[in-house]
Specification:
This protein has 387 residues and is of the alpha/beta class. The protein contains 16 helices and nine strands. The protein has an eight-stranded parallel barrel with strand order 1-2-3-4-5-6-8-9, surrounded by five helices. β5, α12 (230-248) and β6 form a beta-alpha-beta unit.
């Protein structure tokens, strides 16, 4: 091929790419800004019935993550909490770091306090979490090795699940075990339990939990399963593969926990793909729990009304799809009020403005996000029975 023709072909190719990028930019330009698309949305709800009761009419459990400190120190907050919530999950009190100050001692005090509070208020309680790569005590890396890993894992689960047997609605047995970026064909995250015990550590954990409390619902919990990105698509595929493998081996697993930490500035949301994924999970005979929903407002406009409108829009758009799935039996926000949210430290705003990711503001007033959750629950189909 002559030099000239090669040059013409290359130029045409570059022009083509250029035109494509331009077209998508123009398309983006034509797309209303997030602020604009939520600016006129009507977030009106009927009545002011608390979320827990709205959810109950649909056979759903509504609740939130909470810390012993925030409930013990703040009576008004505690009252609002049990008014809105039918189930609680300890934010950190049942993680290894809190439970295992030393290799041979268990500290159940904060967890017991929360269990007593829940019982006194007629709330159910979830357990979070028995196997996770974070929230580990300092001594873990120097004590746990391939010789004692199985015994350490079994002993931890038998002791903790046994201690709360009959008092826990559901346990997040394994949390965030998937990370396709680690390059394994099965998409499992490379971390100590996998290195010491191989992929079977997950099944070992579920069987040990079931043995210690045959009544508790056992959950595999994970994040970044919500959006239409290649990374999250790969995560959904790996999670389905894991669930299918566990079910095929008769592992006592009852549900998938979808954390749903939503991103206020994320527009790549594909309802069809999310619905299909949730249907696939349900087709394994598994329930689904939305376990940690909140909306990061880190990159959103500072104006509070604009920001609250976008955050509310994210809640409503996601929950409208997620709650359509009859296998979804529980919905928990990762906190109830902006007064106590991990995002204040994990995803603070550059402008220093307080973050607003949750249903109630720091004065415990219901926000548009509360309305959005109430609307999504009110419009959701009735499940046969909240389990
Ligand atoms: C977070 C807590 O909210 C923080 O207070 C703590 O410092 C770190 O962990 N996914 C999970 C939760 O499964 O356990 C995490 O909770 C948030 C992300």
């Amino acid at each position: 091929m002559t030099k000239n023709r090669k040059l013409i072909r290359r130029r045409t190719f570059v022009l083509g790419i250029g035109a494509f990028i331009l077209a998508s930019k123009i398309k983006d330009l034509n797309k209303p800004s997030q602020a604009a698309s939520y600016a006129n949305r009507n977030y009106a709800v009927v009545g002011n019935t608390p979320l827990r009761d709205r959810a109950a009419t649909k056979g759903l459990l509504y609740g939130a993550a909470v810390s012993q400190r925030s409930l013990a120190a703040d009576k008004t907050f505690a009252e609002r909490f049990s008014q809105e919530c039918a189930i609680l999950v300890p934010e950190s009190e049942l993680k290894w770091k809190a439970l295992r100050p030393t290799p041979d001692r268990f500290n159940f005090d904060p967890g017991d306090w929360l269990a007593k509070y829940a019982r006194s208020q007629g709330l159910l309680m979830r357990g979070h979490t028995l196997v996770w790569h974070e929230g580990l005590p300092e001594w873990f890396a120097s004590v746990v090795d391939s010789r004692n890993a199985q015994q350490m894992l079994r002993e931890h689960i038998a002791t903790v699940v046994g201690h709360y047997a009959g008092k826990i609605h559901s346990w997040d047995v394994v949390n965030e075990a998937i990370d396709p970026a680690d390059g394994r064909a099965d998409g499992l995250r490379q971390w100590p339990w996998l290195q010491f015990l191989g992929p079977d550590y997950i099944e070992i954990a579920f069987r040990a939990a079931h043995e210690a409390d045959p009544q508790a619902l056992l959950v595999y919990n994970d994040h970044r399963l919500e959006y239409d990105t290649s990374e999250e698509e790969a995560r959904r595929t790996a999670v389905l593969k894991l669930l299918e493998r566990l079910k095929s081996r008769g592992t006592p697993i009852h549900a998938l926990g979808m954390q749903a930490h939503l991103r206020g500035d994320e527009t790549r949301f594909n309802a069809k793909k999310l619905r299909a994924f949730m249907r696939d999970v349900a087709s394994f005979g598994l329930k689904i729990m939305i376990t940690e929903v909140d909306v990061t407002d880190q990159k959103l406009p500072k104006d509070i009304d604009t920001r609250d409108r976008i955050v509310a829009g994210m809640y409503e758009d996601y929950l409208a799809v997620a709650l359509e799935e009859p296998a979804v039996t529980a919905l928990l926000t990762w906190g109830l009020s902006d007064r106590n949210t991990w995002l204040s430290s994990y995803k603070p705003r550059e402008d220093g403005a307080p973050v607003r990711p949750l249903p109630l503001d720091a004065q415990l007033k219901r926000k548009l996000a509360w309305n959005a959750i109430a609307r999504a629950v009110d419009n959701a189909p009735i499940r046969n029975q909240a389990s």
